[in-house]
Write a structure and sequence with these properties.
It is built from four helices and five strands, in the order βββαβαβαα. It is 30% helix and 19% strand.
Length: 190
Amino acid sequence: MIDLWFLDQSGFAPTLPTGYSWGRLGTRLVVPFEAPQGRRVNVVGALAPYGPAGPRFVFETRRKAQGRYDAAVHLAFVCQAVAGLPEAGAARARLARPCVIVLDNYSVHHSQAVKDAIPELEELGIHFCFLPAYSPELNPIEPLWKQVKYQDLPERSHSTDIALQTAVEATLTNRSRKLAESTHELPRSA
């Protein structure tokens, strides 16, 4: 058995997309818009839809003030949040089960720092599997992002990046909790 994770990034703007709305017949509906101006919140998330512990979802949010999502941040997220290894510098033992992480072709995933870390990660039991280019339909985390953006966030406009980050974190924490509590299980052989 392996631990299979699907990893992806998503961005949240201060004014989130409006899925639908109602208005009086003959009147134009006006939805408030907040220009992003560096107030976006980026999220990296990993979804494990199957496994002995049930479905799992982990994530990390970042505002512009917290720095870019680069190779070092990516590797830390993969090792600590996804694979459950201790922080860098601490003694790391090989994982009990291989951890396979499915990724898209985002430039950070193919950066030289990540390529250089692959042999060490594979020794620890972490393996990357890259999706073909332009194939989001193969990544089961994509519908989760859509659900969060269009249905789960009740407030559609946020005046500060901190307010947006707080709302996104609360929504994703709730989504993670619901997923962990779900009764979804794969059929088991007799």
